[in-house]
Design a protein that fits this description.
Elements (H helix, E strand, L loop, with lengths): L3 E7 L13 E6 L2 E7 L3 H7 L7 E5 L5 H4 L2 H10 L6 E6 L2 H12 L7 E6 L6 E4 L3 E7 L7 E7 L5 E2 L1 H7 L6 H5 L4 E2 L5 E2 L1 H4 E2 L6 E5 L17 E5 L7 H7 L4 H11 L3 E5 L9 H8 L5 E3 L5 E3 L4
Parallel strand pairs: 3-4, 4-5, 5-6, 14-15, 15-16, 16-17
Antiparallel strand pairs: 1-2, 1-18, 2-3, 7-8, 8-9, 9-14, 10-13, 11-12
């Protein structure tokens, strides 16, 4: 089974602290790297994670608050200094394009790689990216500005051919892909060997959902059914319900309610308010509703496992 991992680069909220970086993650799936959000200091965190800058293919921005996007122009400049030549694709609300172009002209004039902008409609659940291994959909959220999350789904793979059957029936290499695609095998003496004897079932596709800044949405779970790993912002504990309503954020308990109702495999908490020196209170409130809840932290890598 190929790697499907989430690298945490930053899990703090708007106010900078010495403990947490501004929000950013890298999703690694089938050998490709996709960044979600790019707060201030992201490129330093990227360095510390030992993730190769050159491997990053796409950046998905959830919304245009500084703690989710102020790091991008510095990162793009660094890519230019490193001699990047492959295009970088940026998916973000359409309002970001004019700002991005102005910053590129001011600070990154003469880049030797193309920055390709894709406008995202944050109000719709839509497929916005697809390659041979994964699809990415938008998840409409409710924040103080247009905002969406992103749902990564692996594409189904082919069945696994059994090595012992290859040897036993002397199946040539030229026929392996046919068998993976469902073909039977006929031996030299005319015996038909059914495909079910030759292969093991394909790995079940995995999924990861990133729900950025949002107030609690009672129906959100409908878009996230059976997701294997869910990140949901959990800025506050229940001691800050007034701020939850005022700033359109969620509590850890509310994040856990979404995970429970979505029948998620695991829940990651993040986007912690700077008021909490210890996030254990958030974890305890989440686990009271959804036991498979975990705190994210800079440098952590979470494997997306089939639930």
């Amino acid at each position: 089974m190929e790697a499907f991992k989430v690298h945490i680069l930053g899990c703090g909220s708007a106010l900078p602290t010495l403990k947490h970086n501004a929000t950013s993650q890298v999703v690694e799936v089938r050998g490709k790297l996709h960044m979600i959000d790019c707060g201030e200091g992201t490129q330093i965190a990227l360095r510390r994670s030992k993730i190769a800058f050159s491997r990053l293919q796409n950046v998905f921005l959830s919304h245009l608050h500084g703690d989710h996007c102020l790091g991008i122009i510095g990162m793009l400049s660094t890519f230019g200094l490193l001699g990047r030549t492959t295009p970088l694709h940026i998916f973000a609300p359409h309002e970001f394009e004019s700002m991005l172009r102005a910053q590129l002209e001011m600070f990154c004039h003469g880049l030797e790689y193309e920055v390709v902008f894709h406008a995202v409609d944050t109000t719709k659940n839509a497929l916005i990216y697809e390659d041979r291994g994964v699809t990415v959909e938008t998840i409409p959220l409710e924040h103080r500005v247009p905002c969406c999350g992103y749902l990564f789904r692996e594409k189904p793979t082919l069945s696994h051919i059994r090595r012992d059957m290859i040897d036993f029936y002397r199946i040539p290499v030229s026929q392996i892909n046919n068998i993976k695609n469902g073909a039977d095998w006929t031996t030299e003496d005319g015996t038909l060997v059914p495909n079910s004897r030759l292969v093991r079932p394909a790995d079940a596709p995995r999924s990861y959902a990133y729900c950025s800044d949002t107030r609690y949405i009672p129906t959100l779970h409908q878009l996230l059914q059976n997701v294997d790993l869910l990140y949901h912002e959990s800025t506050y504990a229940n001691d800050q319900l007034e701020n939850v309503r005022k700033y359109f954020h969620s509590t850890a308990e509310q994040a856990a309610m979404v995970a429970r109702d979505a029948h998620a495999g695991q829940l990651l908490l993040g986007h912690y308010s700077a008021r909490y020196e210890d996030e254990q209170m958030l974890l305890e409130e989440a686990r009271a509703v959804f036991p498979e809840s975990y705190l994210s932290d800079e440098g952590m890598v979470f494997e997306v496992k089939k639930s």
